[in-house]
Protein backbone atom coordinates (compact mmCIF):
# COMPACT_ATOMS: atom_id res chain seq x y z
CA UNK A 1 0.00 0.00 0.00
CA UNK A 2 1.05 3.61 -0.53
CA UNK A 3 1.39 4.30 3.23
CA UNK A 4 3.26 1.15 4.29
CA UNK A 5 6.55 3.05 4.59
CA UNK A 6 4.84 5.88 6.49
CA UNK A 7 3.32 3.39 8.94
CA UNK A 8 6.72 1.89 9.59
CA UNK A 9 8.17 5.35 10.16
CA UNK A 10 5.58 6.60 12.71
CA UNK A 11 4.37 3.35 14.20
CA UNK A 12 0.98 1.67 13.83
CA UNK A 13 -0.68 2.69 17.10
CA UNK A 14 -1.71 0.41 19.95
CA UNK A 15 0.90 1.90 22.27
CA UNK A 16 3.82 0.54 20.29
CA UNK A 17 6.75 2.94 20.12
CA UNK A 18 7.77 4.12 16.65
CA UNK A 19 10.53 2.05 15.13
CA UNK A 20 13.56 3.58 13.50
CA UNK A 21 13.05 3.24 9.75
CA UNK A 22 15.61 1.79 7.43
CA UNK A 23 17.30 4.26 5.03
CA UNK A 24 15.38 2.75 2.12
CA UNK A 25 12.04 3.24 3.87
CA UNK A 26 12.98 6.78 4.91
CA UNK A 27 13.88 7.71 1.33
CA UNK A 28 10.67 6.14 0.05
CA UNK A 29 8.57 8.14 2.50
CA UNK A 30 10.42 11.38 1.75
CA UNK A 31 9.90 10.77 -1.95
CA UNK A 32 6.16 10.24 -1.49
CA UNK A 33 5.88 13.40 0.59
CA UNK A 34 7.74 15.52 -1.96
CA UNK A 35 5.62 17.57 -4.35
CA UNK A 36 5.79 16.55 -8.01
CA UNK A 37 7.20 19.91 -9.06
CA UNK A 38 10.01 19.59 -6.52
CA UNK A 39 10.97 16.19 -7.95
CA UNK A 40 11.04 17.67 -11.44
CA UNK A 41 13.09 20.62 -10.19
CA UNK A 42 15.70 18.30 -8.65
CA UNK A 43 15.97 16.34 -11.89
CA UNK A 44 16.32 19.55 -13.89
CA UNK A 45 18.99 21.07 -11.63
CA UNK A 46 21.09 17.89 -11.59
CA UNK A 47 20.85 17.63 -15.38
CA UNK A 48 21.94 21.25 -15.85
CA UNK A 49 24.94 20.72 -13.57
CA UNK A 50 25.99 17.73 -15.67
CA UNK A 51 25.43 19.48 -19.01
CA UNK A 52 27.13 22.69 -17.84
CA UNK A 53 30.19 20.70 -16.81
CA UNK A 54 30.35 19.07 -20.23
CA UNK A 55 29.98 22.43 -22.03
CA UNK A 56 32.66 24.02 -19.85
CA UNK A 57 35.00 21.10 -20.54
CA UNK A 58 34.64 21.67 -24.28
CA UNK A 59 34.92 25.46 -23.87
CA UNK A 60 38.23 25.05 -22.06
CA UNK A 61 39.55 23.22 -25.15
CA UNK A 62 37.96 25.49 -27.75
CA UNK A 63 40.42 27.24 -30.05
CA UNK A 64 39.82 30.69 -31.52
CA UNK A 65 37.02 30.71 -34.09
CA UNK A 66 34.62 33.01 -35.91
CA UNK A 67 32.62 33.68 -32.72
CA UNK A 68 35.03 33.50 -29.79
CA UNK A 69 38.63 33.67 -28.82
CA UNK A 70 40.48 30.64 -27.50
CA UNK A 71 39.16 29.06 -24.30
CA UNK A 72 36.00 31.21 -24.03
CA UNK A 73 33.91 31.58 -20.90
CA UNK A 74 30.53 29.92 -20.69
CA UNK A 75 28.45 32.86 -21.93
CA UNK A 76 30.62 33.42 -25.00
CA UNK A 77 30.61 29.69 -25.74
CA UNK A 78 26.80 29.65 -25.44
CA UNK A 79 26.43 32.48 -27.99
CA UNK A 80 28.08 30.74 -30.95
CA UNK A 81 26.52 29.65 -34.23
CA UNK A 82 22.88 30.79 -34.58
CA UNK A 83 23.19 32.50 -31.21
CA UNK A 84 25.04 35.26 -33.02
CA UNK A 85 22.15 35.64 -35.47
CA UNK A 86 19.72 35.99 -32.56
CA UNK A 87 22.10 38.60 -31.14
CA UNK A 88 21.88 40.54 -34.42
CA UNK A 89 18.07 40.36 -34.41
CA UNK A 90 17.89 41.42 -30.76
CA UNK A 91 20.04 44.49 -31.39
CA UNK A 92 19.26 45.48 -34.98
CA UNK A 93 16.06 43.73 -36.02
CA UNK A 94 15.58 42.60 -39.62
CA UNK A 95 16.93 44.11 -42.87
CA UNK A 96 14.51 45.80 -45.24
CA UNK A 97 16.62 44.68 -48.20
CA UNK A 98 17.70 41.09 -48.78
CA UNK A 99 21.47 40.61 -49.08
CA UNK A 100 22.52 39.24 -52.44
CA UNK A 101 25.48 37.05 -53.37
CA UNK A 102 27.88 37.92 -56.18
CA UNK A 103 26.06 35.53 -58.51
CA UNK A 104 22.65 37.13 -57.83
CA UNK A 105 21.12 34.78 -55.25
CA UNK A 106 19.59 35.71 -51.92
CA UNK A 107 22.19 35.26 -49.20
CA UNK A 108 22.01 34.39 -45.53
CA UNK A 109 20.29 36.93 -43.30
CA UNK A 110 18.35 37.41 -40.08
CA UNK A 111 15.07 36.60 -41.85
CA UNK A 112 15.72 32.88 -41.26
CA UNK A 113 15.26 33.45 -37.51
CA UNK A 114 11.82 34.08 -36.08
CA UNK A 115 11.25 37.01 -33.73
CA UNK A 116 9.65 35.75 -30.51
CA UNK A 117 12.87 34.64 -28.79
CA UNK A 118 15.22 37.50 -29.74
CA UNK A 119 12.56 40.16 -29.12
CA UNK A 120 11.83 38.70 -25.68
CA UNK A 121 15.56 38.74 -24.94
CA UNK A 122 15.77 42.34 -26.17
CA UNK A 123 12.94 43.39 -23.87
CA UNK A 124 14.57 41.76 -20.85
CA UNK A 125 17.90 43.34 -21.77
CA UNK A 126 16.21 46.75 -21.65
CA UNK A 127 14.57 46.03 -18.30
CA UNK A 128 17.59 44.40 -16.62
CA UNK A 129 20.49 46.27 -18.19
CA UNK A 130 22.28 42.96 -18.76
CA UNK A 131 23.96 42.03 -22.03
CA UNK A 132 22.59 39.65 -24.64
CA UNK A 133 24.61 36.61 -23.58
CA UNK A 134 23.41 36.53 -19.98
CA UNK A 135 19.77 37.28 -20.81
CA UNK A 136 19.64 34.79 -23.71
CA UNK A 137 20.98 31.95 -21.55
CA UNK A 138 18.60 32.91 -18.72
CA UNK A 139 15.60 32.86 -21.06
CA UNK A 140 16.61 29.51 -22.53
CA UNK A 141 17.11 27.89 -19.13
CA UNK A 142 13.86 29.34 -17.76
CA UNK A 143 11.85 27.95 -20.67
CA UNK A 144 13.68 24.63 -20.37
CA UNK A 145 12.58 24.38 -16.75
CA UNK A 146 9.05 25.35 -17.72
CA UNK A 147 9.09 22.61 -20.34
CA UNK A 148 10.25 20.02 -17.82
CA UNK A 149 7.37 20.94 -15.49
CA UNK A 150 4.78 20.94 -18.27
CA UNK A 151 6.19 17.75 -19.79
CA UNK A 152 5.59 15.95 -16.50
CA UNK A 153 1.97 17.15 -16.49
CA UNK A 154 1.60 16.11 -20.14
CA UNK A 155 2.98 12.63 -19.50
CA UNK A 156 0.77 12.22 -16.43
CA UNK A 157 -2.23 12.37 -18.76
CA UNK A 158 -1.13 9.06 -20.32
CA UNK A 159 1.48 7.43 -18.07
CA UNK A 160 1.89 6.45 -14.40
CA UNK A 161 3.62 8.84 -12.02
CA UNK A 162 7.04 7.16 -11.96
CA UNK A 163 7.15 6.68 -15.72
CA UNK A 164 6.14 10.30 -16.27
CA UNK A 165 9.00 11.48 -14.06
CA UNK A 166 11.50 9.26 -15.88
CA UNK A 167 10.25 10.74 -19.14
CA UNK A 168 11.31 14.11 -17.72
CA UNK A 169 14.69 12.62 -16.78
CA UNK A 170 15.22 11.58 -20.39
CA UNK A 171 14.16 15.01 -21.67
CA UNK A 172 16.59 16.73 -19.28
CA UNK A 173 19.56 14.43 -19.98
CA UNK A 174 18.91 13.89 -23.70
CA UNK A 175 21.84 14.10 -26.14
CA UNK A 176 20.43 17.40 -27.46
CA UNK A 177 19.77 18.88 -24.00
CA UNK A 178 22.79 21.24 -24.20
CA UNK A 179 20.73 23.28 -26.69
CA UNK A 180 18.37 24.09 -23.81
CA UNK A 181 20.95 26.34 -22.12
CA UNK A 182 22.54 28.26 -24.98
CA UNK A 183 21.35 31.27 -27.00
CA UNK A 184 18.91 29.29 -29.13
CA UNK A 185 15.10 29.39 -29.34
CA UNK A 186 14.58 25.63 -28.98
CA UNK A 187 13.68 25.60 -25.29
CA UNK A 188 11.13 28.38 -25.82
CA UNK A 189 9.54 26.43 -28.65
CA UNK A 190 9.57 23.25 -26.56
CA UNK A 191 7.72 25.03 -23.75
CA UNK A 192 4.92 26.36 -25.93
CA UNK A 193 4.71 23.05 -27.78
CA UNK A 194 4.29 21.16 -24.50
CA UNK A 195 1.62 23.61 -23.35
CA UNK A 196 -0.13 23.30 -26.72
CA UNK A 197 -0.15 19.49 -26.58
CA UNK A 198 -1.42 19.60 -22.99
CA UNK A 199 -4.27 21.94 -23.95
CA UNK A 200 -5.07 19.83 -27.01
CA UNK A 201 -5.30 16.66 -24.93
CA UNK A 202 -7.46 18.51 -22.38
CA UNK A 203 -9.56 19.78 -25.33
CA UNK A 204 -9.20 23.40 -24.28
CA UNK A 205 -9.22 24.65 -27.86
CA UNK A 206 -9.77 28.36 -27.24
CA UNK A 207 -6.80 28.51 -24.87
CA UNK A 208 -4.69 27.01 -27.68
CA UNK A 209 -4.98 30.11 -29.86
CA UNK A 210 -2.37 32.42 -28.26
CA UNK A 211 -0.08 29.49 -27.51
CA UNK A 212 0.00 28.37 -31.14
CA UNK A 213 0.62 31.91 -32.37
CA UNK A 214 3.64 32.45 -30.09
CA UNK A 215 5.00 28.97 -30.80
CA UNK A 216 4.77 29.57 -34.55
CA UNK A 217 6.73 32.81 -34.22
CA UNK A 218 9.42 31.11 -32.15
CA UNK A 219 10.38 28.24 -34.45
CA UNK A 220 8.69 26.91 -37.63
CA UNK A 221 5.89 24.72 -36.29
CA UNK A 222 2.52 26.26 -37.14
CA UNK A 223 1.83 24.21 -40.26
CA UNK A 224 2.84 20.95 -38.59
CA UNK A 225 0.63 21.69 -35.61
CA UNK A 226 -2.22 22.61 -37.95
CA UNK A 227 -1.94 19.16 -39.53
CA UNK A 228 -1.94 17.55 -36.08
CA UNK A 229 -5.05 19.55 -35.20
CA UNK A 230 -6.70 18.47 -38.44
CA UNK A 231 -6.00 14.83 -37.66
CA UNK A 232 -7.36 15.40 -34.14
CA UNK A 233 -10.62 16.82 -35.53
CA UNK A 234 -11.02 13.93 -38.00
CA UNK A 235 -10.30 11.40 -35.24
CA UNK A 236 -12.89 12.94 -32.93
CA UNK A 237 -15.45 13.13 -35.74
CA UNK A 238 -15.02 9.46 -36.58
CA UNK A 239 -15.39 8.52 -32.91
CA UNK A 240 -18.24 10.92 -32.13
CA UNK A 241 -20.67 8.08 -31.37
CA UNK A 242 -18.42 6.86 -28.55
CA UNK A 243 -16.93 10.25 -27.64
CA UNK A 244 -19.39 13.13 -28.21
CA UNK A 245 -18.02 15.93 -30.38
CA UNK A 246 -20.50 18.77 -30.03
CA UNK A 247 -20.93 21.81 -32.24
CA UNK A 248 -19.09 24.13 -29.85
CA UNK A 249 -16.07 21.85 -29.74
CA UNK A 250 -16.13 21.48 -33.52
CA UNK A 251 -16.14 25.27 -33.98
CA UNK A 252 -13.39 25.76 -31.39
CA UNK A 253 -11.11 23.00 -32.72
CA UNK A 254 -11.50 24.03 -36.37
CA UNK A 255 -10.83 27.65 -35.40
CA UNK A 256 -7.66 26.58 -33.62
CA UNK A 257 -6.59 24.70 -36.74
CA UNK A 258 -7.20 27.72 -38.97
CA UNK A 259 -5.27 29.98 -36.59
CA UNK A 260 -2.40 27.49 -36.68
CA UNK A 261 -2.39 27.54 -40.49
CA UNK A 262 -2.38 31.35 -40.51
CA UNK A 263 0.39 31.40 -37.91
CA UNK A 264 2.42 28.97 -39.97
CA UNK A 265 2.38 31.37 -42.93
CA UNK A 266 2.55 34.60 -40.92
CA UNK A 267 6.34 35.01 -40.94
CA UNK A 268 6.49 34.45 -44.69
CA UNK A 269 4.03 37.33 -45.14
CA UNK A 270 5.91 39.58 -42.70
CA UNK A 271 9.18 38.98 -44.55
CA UNK A 272 7.48 39.57 -47.91
CA UNK A 273 5.82 42.80 -46.78
CA UNK A 274 9.05 44.18 -45.31
CA UNK A 275 11.42 43.28 -48.13
CA UNK A 276 9.07 43.44 -51.11
CA UNK A 277 9.92 39.85 -52.10
CA UNK A 278 7.17 37.23 -51.88
CA UNK A 279 9.79 34.51 -51.40
CA UNK A 280 12.04 36.38 -48.97
CA UNK A 281 11.79 33.82 -46.17
CA UNK A 282 12.07 30.67 -48.27
CA UNK A 283 14.91 32.14 -50.36
CA UNK A 284 16.77 32.98 -47.16
CA UNK A 285 16.29 29.46 -45.81
CA UNK A 286 17.49 27.98 -49.11
CA UNK A 287 20.71 29.99 -48.82
CA UNK A 288 21.84 27.74 -45.97
CA UNK A 289 21.61 24.56 -48.04
CA UNK A 290 23.46 26.09 -51.02
CA UNK A 291 26.79 25.13 -49.45
CA UNK A 292 25.79 21.50 -49.96
CA UNK A 293 23.82 21.33 -53.21
CA UNK A 294 23.89 24.85 -54.62
CA UNK A 295 20.90 27.15 -55.09
CA UNK A 296 17.67 25.40 -56.00
CA UNK A 297 13.95 26.04 -55.84
CA UNK A 298 11.97 24.72 -52.86
CA UNK A 299 9.98 21.74 -54.10
CA UNK A 300 8.10 20.05 -51.23
CA UNK A 301 9.00 16.43 -50.40
CA UNK A 302 12.20 16.52 -52.52
CA UNK A 303 14.88 17.80 -50.07
CA UNK A 304 15.42 14.46 -48.35
CA UNK A 305 15.82 12.66 -51.66
CA UNK A 306 18.37 15.31 -52.66
CA UNK A 307 20.06 14.80 -49.31
CA UNK A 308 20.06 11.03 -49.62
CA UNK A 309 21.75 11.28 -52.99
CA UNK A 310 24.21 13.89 -51.67
CA UNK A 311 25.33 11.90 -48.64
CA UNK A 312 25.12 8.40 -50.16
CA UNK A 313 25.04 8.74 -53.98
CA UNK A 314 23.00 6.30 -55.98
CA UNK A 315 20.19 3.93 -55.16
CA UNK A 316 21.64 3.02 -51.77
CA UNK A 317 21.00 6.50 -50.34
CA UNK A 318 17.37 6.52 -51.48
CA UNK A 319 16.94 2.97 -50.20
CA UNK A 320 18.22 3.96 -46.76
CA UNK A 321 15.84 6.92 -46.72
CA UNK A 322 12.85 4.74 -47.61
CA UNK A 323 13.87 2.22 -44.94
CA UNK A 324 14.09 5.00 -42.34
CA UNK A 325 10.61 6.28 -43.24
CA UNK A 326 9.15 2.76 -43.05
CA UNK A 327 10.86 2.18 -39.70
CA UNK A 328 9.46 5.45 -38.35
CA UNK A 329 5.96 4.55 -39.53
CA UNK A 330 6.25 1.18 -37.79
CA UNK A 331 7.46 2.90 -34.61
CA UNK A 332 4.27 4.97 -34.49
CA UNK A 333 2.22 1.77 -34.12
CA UNK A 334 4.30 0.08 -31.42
CA UNK A 335 2.49 -0.49 -28.10
CA UNK A 336 4.77 1.90 -26.20
CA UNK A 337 4.08 4.78 -28.59
CA UNK A 338 0.35 3.99 -28.79
CA UNK A 339 0.16 4.38 -25.00
CA UNK A 340 1.05 8.07 -25.44
CA UNK A 341 -2.35 8.62 -27.01
CA UNK A 342 -3.43 9.73 -30.48
CA UNK A 343 -2.69 13.46 -30.11
CA UNK A 344 1.00 13.04 -29.35
CA UNK A 345 1.27 10.57 -32.23
CA UNK A 346 -0.52 13.03 -34.52
CA UNK A 347 1.96 15.74 -33.58
CA UNK A 348 5.06 13.60 -34.03
CA UNK A 349 3.90 12.25 -37.39
CA UNK A 350 2.89 15.73 -38.60
CA UNK A 351 6.17 17.32 -37.59
CA UNK A 352 8.28 14.59 -39.15
CA UNK A 353 6.25 14.92 -42.36
CA UNK A 354 6.89 18.68 -42.26
CA UNK A 355 10.64 18.07 -42.00
CA UNK A 356 10.48 15.59 -44.87
CA UNK A 357 8.66 18.18 -46.95
CA UNK A 358 10.95 21.19 -46.52
CA UNK A 359 14.24 20.43 -44.77
CA UNK A 360 17.54 19.36 -46.33
CA UNK A 361 19.16 16.77 -44.04
CA UNK A 362 22.54 17.64 -42.54
CA UNK A 363 24.03 18.01 -39.05
CA UNK A 364 21.25 20.37 -37.93
CA UNK A 365 18.79 17.51 -38.39
CA UNK A 366 19.47 16.34 -34.84
CA UNK A 367 18.46 19.73 -33.44
CA UNK A 368 15.42 20.00 -35.67
CA UNK A 369 14.19 16.65 -34.36
CA UNK A 370 14.01 18.07 -30.83
CA UNK A 371 10.22 18.74 -31.07
CA UNK A 372 9.55 14.98 -31.19
CA UNK A 373 10.80 14.76 -27.58
CA UNK A 374 7.37 13.52 -26.33
CA UNK A 375 8.54 10.15 -27.68
CA UNK A 376 10.79 9.95 -24.61
CA UNK A 377 7.58 8.84 -22.92
CA UNK A 378 7.70 5.64 -24.96
CA UNK A 379 11.33 4.90 -24.07
CA UNK A 380 10.61 5.63 -20.40
CA UNK A 381 8.09 2.81 -19.97
CA UNK A 382 10.34 -0.20 -19.15
CA UNK A 383 10.81 -0.22 -15.36
CA UNK A 384 14.09 -2.10 -15.14
CA UNK A 385 16.61 -0.11 -13.07
CA UNK A 386 19.49 -1.41 -15.19
CA UNK A 387 17.69 -0.33 -18.36
CA UNK A 388 16.98 3.14 -17.00
CA UNK A 389 20.51 3.74 -15.71
CA UNK A 390 21.96 2.52 -19.01
CA UNK A 391 19.64 4.81 -20.98
CA UNK A 392 20.61 7.87 -18.94
CA UNK A 393 24.27 6.93 -19.39
CA UNK A 394 23.79 6.71 -23.14
CA UNK A 395 22.07 10.11 -23.12
CA UNK A 396 24.99 11.72 -21.31
CA UNK A 397 27.44 10.06 -23.71
CA UNK A 398 25.29 11.43 -26.52
CA UNK A 399 25.76 14.94 -25.14
CA UNK A 400 29.52 14.54 -25.50
CA UNK A 401 29.03 13.26 -29.04
CA UNK A 402 26.64 16.00 -30.15
CA UNK A 403 28.72 18.85 -28.68
CA UNK A 404 31.87 17.44 -30.29
CA UNK A 405 30.22 17.02 -33.70
CA UNK A 406 27.95 20.04 -33.88
CA UNK A 407 28.74 22.73 -31.29
CA UNK A 408 32.49 22.60 -30.67
CA UNK A 409 34.34 24.29 -33.55
CA UNK A 410 37.23 22.26 -34.90
CA UNK A 411 38.99 24.25 -37.62
CA UNK A 412 36.81 24.67 -40.73
CA UNK A 413 33.61 23.23 -39.34
CA UNK A 414 30.86 22.12 -41.75
CA UNK A 415 28.68 20.46 -39.10
CA UNK A 416 26.55 23.28 -37.63
CA UNK A 417 24.22 22.49 -34.71
From TrEMBL:
The chain crosses the membrane at residues 36-59, 132-152, 164-185, 205-238, 250-270, 310-334, 346-365, 385-409. Keywords: Endoplasmic reticulum, Glycosyltransferase, GPI-anchor biosynthesis, Membrane, Transferase, Transmembrane, Transmembrane helix. This is Mannosyltransferase PIG-V. Pathway: Glycolipid biosynthesis; glycosylphosphatidylinositol-anchor biosynthesis. One of its GO terms (cellular component) is mannosyltransferase complex. InterPro entries: PIG-V/Gpi18. The keyword Endoplasmic reticulum applies. The keyword Transmembrane applies. It is a multi-pass membrane protein. One of its GO terms (biological process) is GPI anchor biosynthetic process. GO terms for molecular function: alpha-1,6-mannosyltransferase activity; GPI mannosyltransferase activity. It is found in: Endoplasmic reticulum membrane.
